[in-house]
Amino acid sequence: MFVDQVILKVRAGRGGDGAISFLREKYVPRGGPAGGNGGKGGNVIAIALSQKKTLYDVAIQKVYEASNGEPGKGKNQFGKDGADVVLVVPVGTQIIDQKDNQIIADLTEDKQEVIIARGGRGGRGNSSFATSTNQAPRIAEKGELGEAREIRLELKLIADVGISGFPNAGKSTLLSVVSAAKPRIADYPFTTLHPNLGVVNHHDQQFIMVDVPGIIEGASRGAGLGLEFLRHIERTRLILHCVDLSQFYSENNPYDDFLTLRREFEAYSSSLAAKPFFVVATKLDLIKAAQNFNEFKSTLEQQGIPVFGVSSLTKEGMNQLLDAIIEFLKNAPEIFTKEILSQSKNTPLSPIRSRHYRFSTPFLDRLIAEIDWNSDNALSIFNQKLVHFDFLKYFSAIQPGSIVEIENLNFIWTGKRLEAHKTTSK
């Protein structure tokens, strides 16, 4: 079942509470505080996979919750981190916050992943609060709450060329002829009920084509299937407007049908209406279509609009159309409709309070987990990796001496590198 839009609630796990404990061992007088930190709450993560074609699997469940981190324990034992929850979605999925309609992520690549809701930080145990003046603190932090939000997932298929037109204009038949796609084809309106993708190979060149359900006059006001499926050609570099010249299903002048189609595009989106397009006059194997073609082509070419006449039955005009598409795509830039995200959503460095920042990316979180922090050279290794993976650029805007929190660890930014932060005042 094809599903391209779904609304979900996601809740990340709460961080585990820090422990208050003191070391009590034989022959170890004044053992000192030994309360470990709580585990981090699990994240809710989305990952895009190219083999996924629909949001149906994630739409079955309406609420996704990651597990909480476990509390810290005595003997400086950290609590176990909560397990993540992973939503597997198709490439081309946009994740939108329902509250403010801001785009959280636009997953346009295979195996691209993003944290939708971040788990709460584990609370620090009392051993983290020991100072020279308070060597036996009886204080520990509660774990932070995980993020909770309502999100909307919208699938926008990624293709080079989009096919649009009225019902029974020959869109799906065209796709089936130029590619190996097998869309449903019949001689009644609205045979196509969901988008179809096909890979076109022509003269050692390859591109992806998508066919969307037919549009009728008034679609912008909800007539027919509406304009909902036009989102699937928003990412294309070229649009093909298919116009049936046979007048078999419509007695309208084909040129009037073309104008109606353009009006519906403009009603949906000015940016979509501004995309480059070719007009494909279909069904030239029918007598009426052949009679209408010359006048139709002349009218549009006077306006500088490229027109191609084709027959999916006899393959007439197909090579010329595909040649023109390939030539156009050679010089057309890759286009993705990516709204500009706010600064807070666009950087992994976020302020907590004055001169105190949290820094997090999925990659860096894994990097932290891989380092043995009990070793003497752990901090040196960590800084080397920050330089190697070009993470230090994010710290250039903050003042030296600021606290940088990464996972459950706090560091001091010196202006050149991160140093260990022994104590943190609340």
Q: Can you describe what's shown?
A:
There is one protein chain. With 426 residues, the protein is α/β, with parallel strands linked by helices. It has 3 domains: 1-156, GTP1/OBG domain (Spo0b-associated Gtp-binding Protein, Chain: A, Distorted Sandwich), CATH 2.70.210; 161-331, P-loop containing nucleotide triphosphate hydrolases (Rossmann fold, 3-Layer(aba) Sandwich), CATH 3.40.50; 346-426, 2-Layer Sandwich (GMP Synthetase, Chain A, domain 3). It contains 9 helices and 19 strands. It has a 6-stranded mixed β-sheet with strand order 10-11-9-12-13-14, with helices on both faces. Strands 3-1-8-5-6 form a 5-stranded mixed β-sheet, with no helix packed on it. The protein is elongated and about 105 Å long. The chain starts with a strand and ends in a 6-residue tail after the last strand.
What brief labels describe this structure?
P-loop_NTPase, Rossmann fold, 3 domains, Spo0b-associated Gtp-binding Protein, Chain: A, single chain, alpha/beta, EC 3.6.5.-, 426 residues, 5-stranded mixed β-sheet, metal-binding, 6-stranded mixed β-sheet, 9 helices, 19 strands, GMP Synthetase, Chain A, domain 3
Which blocks of ≥5 consecutive residues have pLDDT under 50? Answer: 185-192, 336-346
What is CATH's topology name of the largest domain? Rossmann fold
Helix-strand pattern, N to C?
EEHEEEEEEEHEEEHHEHEHHEEHHEEE
Largest beta-sheet characterization? 6 strands, mixed
The gyration radius over C-alpha positions equals 29 Å
Which CATH C-level class of the largest domain is it? Alpha Beta
Q: What's the number of structural domains?
A: 3
Please, what is the average pLDDT? 82
**Strand order of the main beta sheet, please?**
10-11-9-12-13-14
Rough shape? elongated
Could you state the CATH homologous superfamily of the largest domain?
Answer: P-loop containing nucleotide triphosphate hydrolases
Q: Report the count of strand segments.
A: 19
The N- and C-terminal alpha carbons lie at a distance of: 52 Å
Number of helices: 9
The assigned CATH architecture of the largest domain is 3-Layer(aba) Sandwich
Share of helical residues? 10-25%
Structural class: alpha/beta
**What percentage of amino acids are in beta strands?**
15-25%
Keywords: Cytoplasm, GTP-binding, Hydrolase, Magnesium, Metal-binding, Nucleotide-binding
Domain OBG-type G: 159-330
GO cellular component, one term: cytoplasm
Cofactor: Mg(2+)
